[in-house]
Every structure is written in structure tokens, then in C-alpha cells.
Records
---
Amino acid sequence: MKHSTTRLERGSVLLIILLLTLLMSLPGFTQTSPVVAGYYTSWRVFAYPPSQIPMNRVTHIMHSFAYPDASGNINHPTYFLDPTPELIQLAHNAQKKVFVALGGWSDSGGFSPMAASSSTRANFINNITTFCLTHGYDGVDLDWEYPANDADKQNLNLLVSELKAHWAQVAPHLGLSIAVAATDWSAHYVDVTFLAPYVEWFGVMTYDYHGSWSDHTGHLSPLYLDPRDPGQCGAVDNSIYDYYHNQRGVAYDKLVCGVPFYGKKFTKATEPYQPNKFRATDLLYSEIVVLSGYTYKWDSVAQVSYLSGSSSFITYNDPVSAQKTCQYAKDKAIKGVMMWELSQDVLTDGSQPLLDIIGEEMLGGGSPVPPTAPTNLTATAVVSTQINLAWNDNSSNEHGFKIERSTNGVDFALIATTAVGVTGYPNVGLTPNTTYYYRVYAFNGAGNSAYSNVASAATPPSGGGGPFDDTANIDIPVSGTVSGSYVNTQTSDNGYESIQETEQAVGPPSNRWSFLEHKWKINVTGGVSVTFNLEAYKSANVENDNFTFAYSTDDNTYTNMVTVTKTADDQTRQTYTLPNSLSGNVFIRVVDTDHTKRNRVLDFIYVDHMFVRSETSLGKEVIDLPVSLTTPSRFALQQNYPNPFNPTTTISYSLDRDGDVSLVVYDVMGRQTATLVNGFQAAGQYHHTWNAMGENGLLA
């Protein structure tokens, strides 16, 4: 019966469809949609007025914070109600709801004494009901941080049950949500079993798992618990699935998880799970994304982003990790997600990357319009196995670009997806003496743009193939005294370009320090492997001042690469592996590391040889186009063959979806030996032939 196609089964399907259609036509039947609740704080209203909130990205606005006193009166900042008429009108016009949020971390002191007395509970219930009806709020979010004992636990039960009983008589349309802690540390005094029937959802504050209070650094809001976390401090999945659902029995459709629009900066640390003896500083997402001098990293276990600097570690959620949290919410079929808080991801151009990706992932709809098509696509054969693409970005609302390739100009297949703002792509692993055709389109949540023009190029016959060593072609002086020029950095000949520090000239001498900044520009070929190489040394000094080199593709956001600490030219190079998608103009910057007041010695950095090496083959066969046009049904990594191998081995794997891929080789001691893939790949089957060469250029 399971595989038959009888008339009965077809009729059953038709009957089910008819029943669903009938139900949906009945009065009062509504399809459930996920909750996307954004906290809107009173203290940010002047920088972020109600008119700036993109209502298509949310379902609920949580206007924060009013608060009860011990007598049950409702208090709030003097300016709290100023935006309320406009806020509620805009929300209601968009068919969204506005809840008033009560309490919060700083103003929850009145809850415990108010809830302890039947008379003050009654006063609170009358006051908050009048408050909502007078100002047009659609409900209340109780944010009592936190019930502290069994008496508070019981009194919260009484407060909520009496409140809902009163509303059933006078205001049945008002909704109730309760914000709860992410871990048992505070949540065990909230009787979620008793309260669940009364609330629309529990907003689980799945952030602040690490902070100043923890003795080690860690992620603010990891999706999954990392075994390396010495405190096992928690994660979204740990709170939602393990604690609230499995341990405490809360139904998924009563749970909302949180996404922070802020991050935390730990000093004297560079990675998660390092000792922490200092206060962590909160930073808005809008402040984090403009920082320079950090390396962006992705924790593949915790499934969250972070920044690593020379002496600090910043934990935060970027659009990728926010999207993964939303996908988790949908996979678990929980009620939805909430954000703290709405204004914290607003960039200087007015865009809100985190809110955009959350709204699109949870509610659909995407951007108002698809992006404008890219133009002026060009294809240039670099070597027999590589063609570089370039195009003009004509859109301000794309989420990225998709690149398609053909060998006949008719049948095209997707080979790559880029991030927003990218205008070039090196297509490697090609067949010599072959003509390839390309076209590109932009995409966002509203759909795809039209295609660009088709560009073609023919790879030359086999021969050559690099490596290509690209050197600086211009100096960009910023601060410091320069001797020599970029020309002196193009060969290893003991002829140096030197830059001497200058002194910060503001204030008395006791407040001054020496510093340096200098930049170069290199036109990078790009390839299978792209590596920064530096032969340089510094002058000896007693201030422990070193020099850090970083790279950028836009001369704005820089990623640290290497730090020069040696005080003599030992004829060796420091290296850093760059993204294998890197090509075109790349900016290199050097800065000193010590800005301590009174450290005024004018140190030197001497650069003998600096270049970016692009390998078009490293014993690695990169196949951008899937071997089969049929998408695999699952991810799989096959056994390499031959094994043992000499001198090469082939590693095969299949991807069931597009995504970022890392293929890393480790030795038997667990040490990283070589990175074969680190970037985006389309769904398909792939083969890599490795010649056992490690990242240090030696046999592994």
C-alpha cells in the first residue's frame, strides 16, 4: 500500500486539500507565522525614530522599558511615551503589534514586593491594563530579571494568572510574553510549566553566555555548545533544546530564541576559551563592523563569528551566524526569534544587515525590489588554467553575485557565489587551450537581477602557470619618514625601503608616543593558493615596539597577517595564507604595535622583499564545476586514494548544497598540515589531488 497509486489514496489527498481549504475559509482561522520580535529602547529613540524601523522585518515591537514599583504603579522615563503614538500607528498600519516591555536588568526591583501582595498585584493589573488600552499597546512583555527564590516563583504564578483572568474580562485581545534567562542559574525560579498556558511565548535570552563574570573568554551567543569551553557556559541549542524543551518540558511553539545586535570585547586575549581577568566591553554591531586590525574568523563548532586581534577578542553575531540561528529556529519549529536591540545594527548608510537577514529568513518577502544587473563583465586568461573575471556592481541592495560558466556559450552552470560588493573572481583549475563563457547576476531576497553580458576567454596551451609573484606598484605614505620606495621591496637584495616612526604631537611630552603607518598597493593575480610573503626586520628597541602587516581589498577594513619582531635580516620570509578568491588591487598596511604614553623612541621598519605569490597549481586539481550536474543527496567525504600514497593522493567529496567549505589536512598528532580549500563552493562533486606539500612549503 505504501508505494501504490490507488484511486483511494489520490482521493484522500484531494480530501485533505479540500478540508484545509475549507478550514482556512472559516471565520477566525489564521495561519500561524513565526514571531520576529525586536526590542525598541526608549534611550535610542532620538537616534532611531519609529519611522526608521523596517516593519516588514518584524512581527512585534517590544517598547522598552516601563517598570512597576512596589505599590503596583507603572513608571517610565519622562520621554518614554513621546514616540508611542507614531510607533503604534506605523506598526498597526503594517499589521504589526507593539508590546510594552516592563522591567529589564536595571528596573526590575519593583516586581518582587509588588507581586508579594494581593492588593499590590491587583493595583498593578489595573494600572497596566489601563496603560495598554489608553496608549494602544497590544500586549505586555514581562522582563523580571530575575525571580530570586521560591516565594518569587509562586508570586509570579499568581501575578500572571490573575492578570490573564482580568484581561479575559476586559481586554481579551491583549497578549503576554515573558523574557526568561537562558540557563538554570536564574530560570529555575520561573515555573514555566504553570505559566506556559498563559503566555504567547517565553523569550529565552540566548546571549551573554560569556562576559566579565566568566574566568575565560568565550562566545556571546554560540549556536552550539563547544566541548572546548572550559565552563560549558551554554549555547542557543543547549538552552532551547536541552534545557527548556527536554529538561523542563516546554513545547517548542512556546519558545523564542534571542539574537544579539551587539558584541563583547575581551582584552588580553585573541581567541575564545582563553583566561579572562579583565572586564569585557559591550560594542554595538555597527561599531564592530568598522573596526580594523582584526582577523575575521568562523567557529565551525559553535557556528558563530568572531574577530581576533593582536591583543583582543571580539565575540558577536554577523549575518551568517544570525541566519543560522533563524534556520535553527525553523528546523526546531520554535515560535520565532527576538532581537536585542533594533537600533544596534544600523550602519552609516541606514542599512540593517542583521535585521534584514533575520526578516528575510523568518518572514520571507526579501528586499522590496531585485537588484540591478551587473554590467561590463570581462574575462581575461591569466595562465593555461585560470581566467580572471571582473564586472561593474550597479546595485546597492544585492546580497551577492552568482557566476555561471559554459563551454559552448549556450548551456551554463553555476560555479560560484560571492559576497555583497565583490566585483571580481579568479576561476582556476581550468583546462588549457579551451574557450570558456561566463555570465553573472546579482541576487537578494526579492529575487535575481537580469544577467550581465556574456564574456569569454580562451586559456592558452599548457606551459608556464606560475607561480606569479606580484609586488607593490605604489607607496601610500600615512605617518612616518620614508627612505627609499616600493621599488626597494620588489627583490631580495638587501636594499631596503625603511619607514621611521613619528611622534604624536598633541599634548605635553608626558602624554606623547611614537607611531607609524604606511601602505602599499599590489595588483594580485590570484589562483589556487595566494600567499603574502615578507622579508623585513625592525630596529632594536627597549619599548618592545613591533610592526604588524595587514591587508585590505577596500583600504578600509584590514585583516592582520604577520608581525615583525626580529631585529636583523636573516634572509627568511614570514608568510600568511590569503583567501584563494583574492585577486585585483590589494592594500598592504604596516603599523606599530606600541602606543604607550612616554614611549617616544622613533623606531624603524626595514622592508627588503614583499610580494604576494599566486599559485595556479600546487599539486592540487581544483574543479569549480561539479563533476556531475546532479546535486548529491548528502554531504560525503570519501577515503583518499591511494592510501598510503606516494607521491600524490586524491581526495574526493560531495556537497549537497552551496556553502563555505574548508578542507584541511592534519597529521597523526592533530597538527594542521595543509589547507586545500577555504572558500565558497557550489553543490556538486569535487576531487583534489594533493602532493603532500605542507603550508610551510615542506613535505608534510
---
Amino acid sequence: MKKRLLLLLALTSIYLQAQTTYTYTGNGYWGNAANWSPSYPGTTIVAGDTVIINGNVVEVDIINAGHLTISSSGSITTGINSGISNTGTLINEGALIATEFGGFSAFISTSGTLSNTGTITIGLGSSVDVTGSLINTGVIEIQSVANLFFSQNATIENSGTGIINNNGSFNTAATFTNMATINNVATLTNTGVFTNAQQLNISGTFTNTGTFTNNQLLNISGMFTNNGTFVNVQTIENTGAFVNNDQKTATNNGTFNNTNSVTNNGIFVNPLTLNNTGTFVNNATLENTSLFNNTGTLTIAATGTMLNLGTYTNEGTITNNGTITNNGTLNNPLLFTNNGNYTNNNIFNNTGTLNCNGAFTNTIAFSNVGIINIETQGTLTVSQTINNQPTGSITNAGTVTTLALGTLNNFGTFSNTNATFTNAGTVVNNTNANFEVTDNTSMHLFRNQATFTNHGTLTLTLASSPSNTNTGTINNTGVFDIPNNFPFTFPNQGTIANHGVFTINTDLINDGVFLNTNEFNGSYRGSGSFANEGIIMGGYIVIRDFGLLTNTGTINTTSIGMSFD
């Protein structure tokens, strides 16, 4: 037993003697033995040995399999076409510099552990490759034409007071969590998993082809290009350019403030808050499920679609050349130009101007207190209710169609000029409202196929065309004026019930039912039924074929006659 104990103590003594600590002081080359204590360790630091650098060492070309520490008063500068290969532990509390000499580059390669609380400088033409682990709470400077690379299996942590300043090329394929500060003024490329948990400043270019998640603050004053998966959970301040490319997904679960440029060529989803005061161009798929505030310019390209399931407020300019579907709330207090397809399935508050040279389909009730201009190639299809309020104005130079279940309720101004208006549903022109149809070309038409009720002022100034007809019901309790002169005629094949003032400067051709209980001014010809319970003044009355005139009121006309064709 005593012999075994003596043997164990002897082996332990030999092992402890094999673990040597070497200290460098002074200034000079690595191979200057006079600067070493207790002796020169050579260019390979073996496992178990420790090297401490308290001085300034230049032209270093070594392999570290042990423990290398650069103290706060020390520095290491790599040599020509050489550097440090670290498979052990490298701790930098001072300065670690990889830089070229006379056009010859240098390197630091670490598959072991690298811990930096000092400054690592990657000089012109040099590189640092990390395939092991890096913990940085100091400063890493990447100079012009220099490269920092994190491999796929590397473990990276930038935390505390850590700062990475990139003026060269920074490439990461690792799972990397930034818990400190990164300033990128050159090129940063992520092909791995990059999580920003503190502050990332991009004044250069950042290209993501892996997975990028922002959990804190991302400042973009340069360009951020997403070719992978992008998720924002906290805050993005974009004063530069953000590009989301083909078939790629960018999801905003935080706050995205854009004051310059966003281009979406893939899928952009906004489940939280997107504030745009700059330019946002959507060439593909844009989906808003929460809050999208636009005080800048939003453009939906011809290839683009926008689905709104949340609240979109436009206090700037929106131009749609593609497709917009509103299933949420769309507020337009400024300018909305629709050259594509706009379908409103929920709440649309227009207090500004909507210029429509495309298709506007309304499938649910909405109120207009602003301006709607249906331009030459534009269409407005009313399949539910549009309430055009007293301050509202609808101007049609294209095509307006009210479908069977649709209602156009006008309290303001509706103007139809050289355009097509077809009512197959319900139109109500309310008291003090104005509904005016003008056609100077004979190329357009006014057709009432259902119910048109006028309590305000209805003016039809129509060129002679057999397509301008009433085959439905017109109920007038206001002012109904047709100011055209002969040879224009207005054919009625349905029912006109006048309980107000109806004035026509030419002939009313009635092959349906005409009821006058108040005042009719004009001439009448027809084979239909004419029942007068009010006053008929001016013009003439001609009863054609098997037409019928029933009078219980007053008729003051130049002549009354009959005609048989």
C-alpha cells in the first residue's frame, strides 16, 4: 500500500512538472527567447501548457492546443502569410491583430474556444475563421477587404459590452445570437440562424439566405436583402432599403417603421404594426392582419396582391395596379388610385379621394364622405349598399352597375358624364341630393331596370339613343328634369310615378305606365297607360294605338290627339 502511494505521488509530480506556464514580456518577435520566462515555448503550445502574453509580440505564426492568454497590457500581431491556429483556448484581454504585410495576408483560425474582452482587429486582406466557439464582450474590428467567417457548427455569442464593427466582409453560417451591438457598414451575409437580441446597425448590406429573427432593434440605413426567412419580433427602423425576394417570407410580429424604401417580391405578412412614411412597393403577396399605417407611398404592382384582414389607414398615396381585397378595415382619408381590381368585403371609409380606372366591387355596405372618381376604363359594381353621404361625391366616366341586391343611396352628388349607368337593383336619390346623367356622344347609356327613387334633383341630359330607357320603376317626389330638345326622346317601357315636378323639353315616349299626381311639364306620346291626377302643362299629348289617358286632374296643353300606326 505504501509503495502504491509513493508511485501515485511520483506520477502526479511528473504530470504537474509537464504543465508549464510561459510568460512573454517586452516587445519583439515570438521567437525572441530573451522575452520568455521560464523558457521559449516554441511555435506549438501543447495541450496542458499555458502561455501568457504581457508584452507586444509581432509576426506570430503558431499552433495553440493549450491555453493562450493575451493580457490587458499585451498584444499579438500575426506574421506574413501566417497566423494563429487555435484548437485549444485563446483568451484575448488586450489586442489580437491579423493584418497583411507588404500585400501578404494573415489569418486566425479557431476550432477551439476564443474569448475576447479586448480588441480583435482583422486587417486589410486578412481573415478570422471560427469553427469552434466565440464569446465576445469586447471589440471586433473587421477592416476593409478583411473577412470574419462563422462556420455552420460554430457557437457564437456577442454579448454584454461586445461590439462587432464590420468594414469588410462578415459571413456567418452558424447559429448566432447577438446580445450586444453589431455595426455593419460593408457586407454581412447570413446563411445560418441569426438572432438579433440587442442592436444591429446596417449601413452597408446585409444578405440573409438563412433564418433571421430580430428580437430587439434593427437599424437599416443601408440595404437588407432577404433571400430566406425573416421574422421581426421587436423594432425595425428602416431609413435605407429593405428587399424581400422571390418566394421568400418576411413576417413582422413587432413594429416596422419604414421611412425610405421597402420592396416585396415574395410574401410579406404583417401581424402587428407597419408604419410606412417612405415608399413601399409590393410585387408579389402582401398580407396585413393588424395595423398598417401609410403616410408615404404604397404601390401594388400588376403582379402584386394585397389582402387586408386588419386595419389599413392611408394618409398618403396608394396606387393599385394589381389586386386588393379588403376583408378588414380600409381607411382612406387621402388618395387611393385603383388601376387594378379592388374588392371591398368589409369596412371601407373613404374620406379622401378614390380614383378608379380599374374594377371596384363592393360586396358589403360602406359610406363615402369623400370623392370617388370612376375613370374611363374604370368600373364600380354595387352588390350591397353604398351610402354616398352629403359631403360625398361620385363621378362616373366609366361604368357603374348596381346589381339586384345592390343599393346606391345618394345623399350627396352623383355625376355620370359620357359614361354607362345601369341600375338592376335600387337607387335612392335623397332630399337635397343631386343625381345628374349627361351623354353628349350617343355612345353611352342610362338604363334603369329596377327601382329608382328620387327625392332630390334628378337631371338626365342624354343624346338620342334607343339604349337610354326605363324598363323598371322611377318614383319621383322631387325634381326630375330632362332638358334635351327635339329630336331627343326618352322612352319609358316600365313605370314612372311622378309625385313631384317632372319637366321634359321634348317627348316622353311611354309604352309602359306613367302616373302623374303633381306636375308634369312637357309633351307626351305613347301607347301605354297615362293616368293624370295632377297638372299637365305645355306641349301636346298624343295617345298612340291602344294607349289610355285617364285624367282626374288638370290638363293645360296645346293639343290632345290620337294616332294609330
---
Amino acid sequence: MKFRTYIIMIAIALVMSGCSKSKDAQMADAMISSLGEITLKSGDEIAEAEKLVSSLPDSQYDKLENAEALLKARIEYDKLCVSNVESNIEEIVNGSDTTLDKIQTVKELYNQLKDDLKGKVSNYEKLEECEKKIIRDKVEPVEKTIDKIGTVTLDSENAIKIAEEAYESLAPVYKDAVKNYSAISEAKEQLKKLRIADIEKYINGIGEVTTKTVCKLAIQKARSVYESYNEDIRKSISNYDVLVAAEEQYINLNRDEMEKEIDDIGVVTLESEKIIISVRKKYDSLEDDIKAAVRTLSVLEKAESDLSTLKVNEVIDIIESLGEAKLDNEKEISAAQEKYDALTYEQKKAVTNADKLKDARDTVNALKKEKLEKQYETALSKVKKETDSLRKVDRYYPSAWPKYIDTRNYFLPEIYVGSGRIQLYYTLNYTDDTWLFWDRADFYLDSSTPTKSLTVSYFDVIRDNDSGDIWEYYYTKCSEKDIEFLRKVADSKEATVIFYGSKYTDRWTIPEKDKKAIKEILEVYDLMVQLRKGTADLKK
């Protein structure tokens, strides 16, 4: 504004002075004179002066005093513009934080230059190379990621996805520089073709439809592969109708086979149970869609109902035929009970004479208990009993049990009853006038090889002596295996024990009276257990 005002004032002064120059010529000289020092900001003033000068006729142009100065100002200004672009380019090229935005700013400065000045910018190629390098640095990793897709297979989805994400992460200015971007779309298309072929392969692999498991698995696999792909893939499958038809045919074949097995049940009898159970098991194992297709399920359910009625009536008839309950017909009562127990809860409710069976069972149990109690009393008369009133424990031991421990060798069991428990123990005692320090005893039952080898630690054997006699005995609770071994000893013809000491061995034959004693204690033990069990059954 100041520049324009100054020019106008000069122009008025010249007119008033009566100069022969035209007003425009005087104004042009004044504008040129006012340019002063040329800077990058002088562009508009120079252009305005040039515009005014170019509008003058030749007669007035010749009268200009500052025409040459205007030419020099233009030349100097153009040099400044070129130099400014070059210095900006150098700063970009040599800078450490160069970005495309900064390059674009310099390119805009360059594009503002006139075409003849652009050719004077000596280092513009450096700017272009710098721009290419920045783009390449961004683009090359993406291109390498795309190249990693390689030969497309059914497993290439992840590689394609990674490549596509890498491309999409680029700013728009970089995307056009990616040379192999088309490889992504080509890979996606190839993967689609492979997936289509994969599904069609599995469908074609179904082959002839049968009820066999291998066919079922082939159909399920084809359906699974088909469902694993998106709608775009599925709608391109050329043989999908084959899969649908195979599924339908598989259902129909299994339905027909199931219906035939149901029909084969025929007239229901008690002998039909196995086939009815088999048919029901097969029906229950069918897939839901096949079950839904079976049209004769009601026939199977009717057969099951008829069988249930027959089984109930059979049990009723068996119970009615039992007669008076006594020990002689215990087997018949047990057989009836087994038949009754095999019924379902609902079937048992339909047995109208179940109370008669219970009464018969209770009567037989009572008779059995009475018989056992008599046997028990007889067995008890053969053994001895001691009562520990302090511990409230009864001890039952054989009559053959030595009064004094140092009297002889023996292998005998004994029973302890207390706190509601029945427990069997055995004692193996060695007696002599010289210490043996045995830690192993081998039992030979009618054999030249050991039937049982008992190995104990030094401290497991209790040792003592008196008046020149020593005794060494091992005492332990009986396991089930020990009880069975005691039975074998009692039943053996010859039972020999070899004691192995620290230096010597000693052989001992179990006498017949000890075998008899073992039998007597085991008989008492067995009867105790049976009576305890029988009492529990009665309570139940």
C-alpha cells in the first residue's frame, strides 16, 4: 500500500511539472525507482512494474529512464528464486529428518518458477532421487512381504492377509509405488480357485452312497470343508447338488435299514429281548436327522412296551409258583429275586405279588441264619475264648495253641473281635535252645519249591529266652492273601517250613494238629463274617 501511495504522489508531481512523458511512463519510472534492494519479497512489485511498462507504446517506452534497471531487477530476482530453491533442495537432501511433506513443499517452490528458470535449478535431480529413496524405503518392505506369498496353496491365506495389511498400512502417496501390488489380488483369486477345487474334490470323493461309516465320514468331511469357507466360495461350487443329494440319500438308506430292523422284531416274546435291545441301541446311536426320518419308531416303542409286560408277568408267575419258603427251595427263591432285580423301577411297581417274594426271601434268610448260628455254636465249641474287659476285645484261638511259647514251633491263626470289627491274625513261632535270628521263612506245601517266602526285618521278630530256651516269633494281621494261604496250609498233605537265620537254617514240619487248628479257627472266622453279613441283609 505504501509503495502504491508513493508512486501516485510521484506521478502527480510529474504531471504538475509539465513533463513531456505520459502519465503511465512517469508512473513506470517511479515504480522502478521505488523497488530498492531486490529480495525474494520483491516479486509482486517487479511484476506490477513490468506489467505497466509492457502496456506503454514504443514512443513512451523510449522515454523511460529506468527500463534497464527493471531488467536488472528481474534478473536479480530470478537468480534469488533459483538460489532459494537450490538451497532448500540441499537442506532437504542433507537433512536427517526429511519427509515427503518437506519434499512436496520444495517442489511447490520449484513449480512456481517459470519454465526457463526451472532449467537453471542445478540440483533438482537430487530432490527427485531423495524422494524416490524415501518412497523405496517405505515400499520395499511391503514388496518383499508380497513376494513372500510365493506359490499359492490352501495354506496361503495368512501370508496373503499379512501382505494385504502391509499394503493398506501405507499412506496413499506410497501405494502407487508398490510395483507388485497386483500379486495380492492374483494370489487371492488363485486361493479362491484352490478352495473351490478343494471342496469339489471332497464332494467327488463321496462316491457311491452306502450306510457304512466310511461313507458317513466322507459326507461329513465334505460338508465340513464346504461350511468352513465363506459365501463367495460356496456359491461358486459346481457340484454342491451332489453333496446335498448324498446327504439325503445317506439319511434315506439308514432310515430304510432302521425300519427293516424294527419290522424284523415281529411278534414280541420273552426271547425277543436281545433283538429289541439291539434295535433300540442302534436307533439311539443314529444322528438326529436320521432319527427324525424313521417312520416306524412307534412300532419299536410298542415292542418295548409289550416286552416289559411279558417280563413283569413272567416274574409274577415265577413268584406264584414258589410255594412254601424253605431251605430246600432257596435256589428257586434266589432265581426269582434275580429276575425281579433285573426289572426296571417302573416294571417292579407292576409286580403285584412282590410282597410274597420278600416274605419268602426273609423266611429263607431267617432259616439260613438259624442254621449258621447252630454251625457257629458247634465251631465255637472247638476253640478257646478269652475276653479283655479293659479293651472290650474277645480273642478266639485254637485249642492247639501252646500254653507256653517256648514249648514248640507253631504257625497258628487267632481272631480278635471288638468295636464292631472282626480281625484275623497269625503267629509264626520258632523255639529252640540256641538263637537262630531268623529273618526269612520258606513254606513248602506238597512241593519241592517254596509256595510262600516270608521275609521280615530283624525288628519285626520278637525274641526272648528263659531257662535256656529261646523263642523268636513273628505276629501280623492277615490280609486276604494270608487267609487264602492259611487255607492251603490246612488242606496240604505235608507242610514244611525252613527258617533262615544269620548263620544257620532249621527245618520244621507243621503237625496235623496245627492244620486241624487252622481249619477250626478259619471256620469260626468264616461263620462270624457270614453272620455279620446276614444280619446286615436282614436289616436291609
---
Amino acid sequence: MIPRFGKIYLRIFGSVLVPVFLFMFQPQAISGEAVPEIAITFQIKNAQDNQAVFARYGLNSTPLFQNIFKAKVSVDTYQSLQADPLIVYAQPDRPMHAAAIVTPSDPFFTTDPTAEDKQWYLPKTHVPEAWGYTKGSSTVAVAVIDTGIHAGHIELNDGRVGEGYNAIKKEAIAPNFNSDDNGHGTAVAGVLGAIQNNGKGIAGINWYVRLMPIKALAADGTGDTSAVALGIVWAADHGANIINLSLGGPGFGPDMTLSNAITYAYNKGVLLVAAAGNDLADHGLNLDSNPIYPVCADNGQNMILGVAATDINDQKASFSNFGSLCIDIAAPGKRIVTTAYLPSDPSNNILIYGSGSSLATPIVSGIAALIKASNNNLSNVEIRNLIMKTADNIDFVNQTSCLGGSCNGFLGKGRINALTALAPQPMANGSLVRQSQTGNIYFIVNNTRRQVSDTVFKLRGFDPTVVVDEVNNQLNNLPIDRPLLPLDGTLIKSPDDAQVYLIDSELKRPLTYLVFISRALSFANIKILPRNEIESYPTGEWAEPLDGTMVLLTGDPTVYVMDKRVVRPVTFYVFKQRNLSFTKVIRVTPDEFSHIPKPTDAYWLSPVDGTLIKSAQDSGIYVIENGTRRLLSYQVFVARNYKFSQAKTLPQAEVDVIAPGFPLLTP
């Protein structure tokens, strides 16, 4: 059975709109002297560097938060700030504008949610604001499993009614064919996608959409579950993204054929939206104890998005069924103006006021179609969850609406809200966001986005379930930074190149064989990456051996030791004093040696800290501290209880190659 509509209807008459375009030209003076400035925001790494940065660039900055500042600077200064190591980031201070509310010219359209004689349900569900993000897409197909669609209606006759299927006769319905002999399906189609901004009648929720008529109900509004099931499968097989089921009732009980069809469509990624039904017009049924189908045919996985009807005050419509098990969302369903076809008075320009969960359901299906249009990568489950998560809670106005008691939990998550479902969600640092146009995944950090390749995604062990989809191309608002690299310490190479790299400090650093073995690295841990991906990573200096590594250059008797990430020569005395062993010295070629970082000074590796030394040509005694030799005064020598016998006498040349430090003159 289908809900009945009140037979209040109007005819649509054409009207002519004359567009008026206003142009305004204001000549501007051109000056060759003024230096253009841009508004920017920037963040300084450490607060102690703030004054130095301000002084360096002559900034007149306004503090914002978290050591972030706002300023107007020249292009040159902006570029310098971007390259300054003291700066986390510098970016333009982009202008923001309030989202415009789209107002089509259709006479029954309104932005007033209290205008009951017009399309109050659009502003009530915030559809006009949501149009600022998307108006739909003709690539999104909504199947209307119903009595058919009168494609010749002047609000539906622009080609948006596509190919369909007559599940009763088991034959195709041609595009733009009048398949409705009852009017119910045409009313549903008008809510979903009546032609907007044409100066006639109403505005559908979707400006652009493909309506798929599936006739499963006869002229009297009744049908068999087998026809509904066949229609569901046909729609799923022919590209439907959403199936609208504004039907049901006690006559539709649990049915394996219907259940199998629902499971089939659900597993193919189709979102199924079904009406709660209006079985007792004065108060509705509790579906928990009196389930009807298909709205309660969830098959244990919430395969159906169940829709209850509300009125202009967000209260449950008196006729609407309700329940905690079958209902997921509520939507306006009382006094809904929409398109119609009346077999008793056939015409292409009829509107009606109708009530019922049958008309609440296409509001939900229509908003789901907008969401799908904004991000085609969203699955049926993701769209369902998004609609439920972003609904407005209406429990507080429904404390006596369900058989005289509270409706808490019986109207799903609340009344649907198109704006909150479509508005971009904030992207937190560390989040992974999938771009709708390309499918690329980006890592968000410091208000920038860094692309994550499939390889890096796996190497970093990211969880696919935490990736979120962008909304309305919001990633385009963030500047793109360098690609995200594998974690520090990862070994990588391409399949056609023997060079191995170490990821270190967001750079790929080439490795020599010396470094590879000195760091006890393993060939088994090398990850093979595509050459083009490796080439996209920024390259750093050659990785150095670990501190303590000893090398001997071919043709040179001098032993060198890595100390504090640079290589220094070592005297025989220091070699023995530090208990170094010739068995651990690694012979290297001049080429390998050229890739080992050298100190900026000419000093050699010092004795260990605390060693007392003196020159054979000088009576002064030094103590080694922090790798430097510090001359001791007699007072300090005595105060520290040093003994002359502790001082090691070295040739002057060996003393001279130890870095000098400040003398120790006072205890």
C-alpha cells in the first residue's frame, strides 16, 4: 500500500524572465613606484626567535595564536620567510566569504522555513545553503521504485528522466517516457529533482540528477514484493547510486526474495532509502513491535536508511510510523508541494500538496544524491553514516509525539541537515584525507598537504580505515608541500639501480658500502620503490658512518675516526689511549672517503676528557675538556688535586693538533 495524498493541486503557468546584467567600470591609476604587498600568516618555530625574525624583516605583525602572526609584506619578504629555517610556514592570508544562499526563480521556492504554502522543507533541511557546495550531478542516478514517472511534466521534461524498467511487465522504459499511471512516483520525482530556476513551479533538491523510473506498483498503487525485488536488482545492475522506496505497509511482510534483492543492491554499493509508512493516520505505529517492509528489511546490517516524517515544527508527523530499530533519520513529510500526474485530469503542469513519509523519503534520497555528487568516492555506507552523523537532534520537541510518550531514539539520529552533511569538515594535523577528483591521499601537517603514495602508505603502516574523504574539494584550499617520505631509518632503492638510500630527516641520503656495513644494516631490509618515486624525494648529503667507525684510506697510513658526525685523524697515542683496535679499521677508496663528512677545522681527535698532557718543549700542563686542551693555572692544578705524574708528555706537533680551549685560571 502507498500513502495517500490530499488532492490539493495547482496548475503551473509559464512566465518570462528578462535577465538584467549590470556592468561597472572604474579606471584605476597605475603607479610604477608602489611595492605591492600581500597579507600573510606565518608561524615562528621558537618564541625566543620572535624578535630576531621581526627585526630581520622589519615586520609589523599582529599575533594570532600558537606563535602564529599576521602581517603585510612584499613578495620578496614573503619568499624569504618561506625559506627561513626559523619559520614553520608562511602562507597567504586567504579571503573568506559567507557562503551564498542560492535562490532559484521558481515561484514556490522559499528560504523561509515557516512558509507552509511554499517549499518550507528546503530551508528547514538547509538545502539552499548546501547548494553553495553542490547542486548535484547528472552522473548520479536515483532509482524511484514506485508507480513510474510522468516524464512529460514541465518540471521534469528536460531529459533528466532516463531509462527505466517496468518490473510488472518486465520490459524497459525508454528515456523521457511517461510511465506513471497513478501520480505517486511523479510526486516523489519532483521532490528529488524538479527543474530549478525555470520560473515555474518548484525547485527540486537536485538541480542536476538522473532519475531512473522503476515501475513496480500498478495504477491503483499496489504491487507485489517480487516486482519490487526485481526492480531493486534491475536498478542496481543499471547504475543506480541510490534507490528510493516510498512504499511499504502491512501487506509487505518479511520476504526472502525482497531480502535477497536488498542484500544484492547493498553489496553493489547502492544506498537504499525507505519510508517509515503511515499505517495509522492519527498516531502511527511503533515499528519495533509492528515491523513493516521494506523499511525494516535491514538484514542485520542496517542496509536500509529508514525515514520518518516530521512537520514544520520538527515534530513527528501524527501519521508517521516510528521506531528505534528501523528508523535512522527524519525528514519533513507534511504539506509538501511537489509535482504530480493525475490520471483523472491528465496534464503536464500539475502541482499538489501532499503528506506522508513517502515524501519525506525523497528529501533524504535527494540530499544523499547531493552528497554523492560532491564526492563520488563515498560508499553507500559512508553516505548513510554521514547523513546520520550530521542530523539535527529533535528529541526535545518530541517528548509526547510517540503514542503520547517521548520519541527519544524513535526518530533515528534526528532531522536531516544537508548543510552540515556537505560542509567541509576541519582537517586536523596528522589526518589522512582522500581527494575526490584524483583519489590521491594526503597527509595534513601545518595547514599544508603532503601526498602519500601507496608505497609510503604501506611502509608507514597507515590504517586505511582512518582515511577520510574531502568534502567539496576542500583540499584545494591547502598549499601542497613535498611528498611524504617513508619513516626515518627506512632503506630504499629502485629495481634498476644499485644505489641504496637511507631516509633521514625527511631526505634520502645515499649510502656507501662502508656506511652500510659500519651501521650493521641488512640487505633484507631494503625496500624496492619505483625509480620515479625515489627521484621525487629530496636528496641530502651522503650518509656518514656512525661515530667510532675507523677508516684507513688506501695509500695513506693515517687512521681516521668518526667523531660527532665528522671524520678526524688520530695519533698513535690517542689510538692506544681510547683502546681502539686495528682489527676494526676499514680500508676505503678515495671515492668512498670523499663522501665522509670532514670537519671545518684542521684538528685531530683529542684524548679522552680528563686527560692531562704537556709538550716536551713547554712546561704548561693542559686538561682535555669537551675535546679541547685547556691550560691549567697552578691554583686550579692544586685545587683539583692533580699530580705531575699524571701528565702525559707528547711531541709538540701532537699537542698542536688538539683544538685549544680557554685557559682555566681560577678554581
